[in-house]
Design a protein that fits this description.
about 90 residues; mainly alpha; 2 domains; about 65% helix; about 0% strand; transmembrane helix; membrane; transmembrane
Length: about 90
């Protein structure tokens, strides 16, 4: 029991000292800017964006061809022929 209370009290003291040190360190403007940059970089590493929002994609109608666009529909219907033929040759 004494060991558990000792661990809890040391944890609380450690958190308090860490928060105080962080508050003192963040009190200067260059350190705040550095901290913001580091946090922004960590966020990008954890959750990368697929592309920049300013980037214009070359795809105008990807995945949803118009039913009356005959050339595009033919291309889509023939698209799987190579992979099916490759699989059939490997199996035979």
């Amino acid at each position: 029991m004494k060991q558990a209370s000792l661990v809890k009290s040391l944890t609380v003291v450690g958190i308090g000292v860490g928060a105080s040190a962080a508050a003192i360190w963040l009190s200067s403007k260059p350190n705040r800017i550095l901290a913001k940059d580091v946090l922004r970089d960590w966020k990008r590493k954890v959750k990368p964006t697929p592309f920049d929002k300013s980037e214009n994609l070359p795809i105008e109608k990807g995945g949803h061809p118009h039913p009356w666009d005959i050339e595009d529909n033919n291309m889509v219907s023939e698209g799987a022929q190579y992979s099916v033929q490759f699989f059939n040759e490997k199996v035979q």
